[in-house]
């Protein structure tokens, strides 16, 4: 009974049903902030199934203008087949998460290959326990500066004065976050393109393979990455709803089938307008 006639911008993502390779694909209306569709799996066919369901609910696939998603090749293939007129916007959350992962790879590799040099430098700069200092450094690199503790602030100030590869990796990650933050304010395709291109040039010259790999991925998808910076397009809402779904899964101690998980997803997040009142619900609750 639901009508999807006004769907223009959708967000596609996956969430796990159980440990291992058990996933469902969820598609949200990012304008109306509601779940439209959920199905088992995460291959390109899930996007085709969504379009069939969209049409069955009165929607028009030709009117879907934007699809916000991660860099899944399967989802990109599905959008190309079922929504060829829609523009893909790669979600800022996933791009920054990829930069965070690249930074962690550099830090772990440096600790494994140059551990004595790192520890020697750290001992000369930090008075407290070496192991604790390394832990503060790890969390400080992952957090935003405004959320640093006093000990993390000390560790990060030392890192920024050092010549370690980890310091370069952290600066690259923070610079990409800054590009996204400025794009959210100016909302200009031209300015976002110039700033992203400058970051890519730096990443290609940085001699850090994880960031060079990330730069190659972003360059191949440049236009879609820029679109993900603009118009407040983000899968943040989708990620938040996935978090609520995972909370429901833990509260239920897991769901025996994917169908049960999908049912809970619809009940909690689709903002259904045509559910009959339950005789067991409290007064005012349907």
Spell out the helices and strands N to C.
EEEHEHEHHHHHHHHHH
The largest sheet is:
5 strands, mixed
Strand content: 5-15%
Strand order of the largest sheet: 3-2-1-4-5
Estimated radius of gyration: 22 Å
> What number of structural domains do the residues give?
2
Count of separate DSSP helical elements: 12
> Between the first and last Cα atoms, what is the distance in angstroms?
16 Å
Q: What's the average pLDDT?
A: 88
Residue share in helix: 55-70%
Low-confidence stretches: none
Describe this structure in words.
With 286 residues, the protein is of the alpha/beta class. It has 2 domains: 9-91 and 233-269, 2-Layer Sandwich (Nucleotidyltransferase, domain 5), CATH 3.30.420; 92-227, no CATH class. The chain is built from 12 helices and 5 strands. It has helices spanning 45-56, 73-82, 92-113, 115-125, 130-142, 150-161, 165-186, 189-205, 209-220, 222-227, 236-251, 258-269, and strands spanning 9-18, 22-29, 34-40, 66-69, 87-90. A hairpin with a 4-residue loop joins β2 and β3 (34-40). The longest helix is centred in the middle third of the chain and has 22 residues, at 92-113. The protein is globular, with a radius of gyration of 22 Å. The mean pLDDT is 88.
């Amino acid at each position: 009974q639901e009508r999807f006639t006004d769907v223009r911008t959708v967000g596609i993502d996956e969430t796990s049903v159980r440990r291992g390779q058990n996933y469902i694909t969820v598609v949200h209306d990012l304008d109306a902030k509601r779940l439209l569709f959920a199905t088992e799996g995460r291959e390109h066919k899930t996007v085709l199934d969504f379009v069939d369901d969209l049409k069955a609910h009165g929607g028009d696939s030709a009117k879907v203008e934007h699809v916000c998603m991660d860099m899944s090749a399967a989802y990109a293939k599905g959008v190309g087949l079922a929504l060829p007129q829609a523009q893909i916007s790669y979600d800022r959350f996933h791009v920054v998460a990829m930069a965070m992962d690249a930074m962690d790879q550099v830090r772990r590799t440096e600790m494994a290959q140059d551990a004595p040099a790192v520890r020697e430098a750290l001992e000369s700069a930090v008075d407290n326990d070496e192991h604790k200092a390394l832990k503060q450094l790890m969390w400080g690199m992952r957090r935003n500066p405004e959320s640093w503790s006093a000990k993390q602030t000390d560790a990060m100030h030392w890192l920024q004065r050092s010549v370690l590869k980890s310091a370069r990796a952290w600066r690259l990650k923070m610079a990409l976050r800054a590009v996204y933050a400025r794009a959210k304010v100016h909302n200009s395709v031209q300015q976002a393109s110039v700033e992203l291109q400058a970051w890519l040039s730096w990443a290609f010259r940085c001699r850090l393979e994880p960031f060079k790999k990330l730069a190659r991925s972003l360059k191949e998808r440049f236009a879609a990455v820029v679109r993900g910076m603009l118009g407040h397009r983000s899968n943040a809402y989708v990620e938040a709803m996935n978090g609520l779904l995972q909370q429901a899964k833990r509260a239920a101690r897991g769901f025996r089938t994917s169908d049960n998980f999908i049912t809970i997803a619809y009940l909690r997040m689709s903002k259904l307008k045509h559910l009959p009142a339950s005789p067991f619900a409290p007064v005012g609750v349907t």
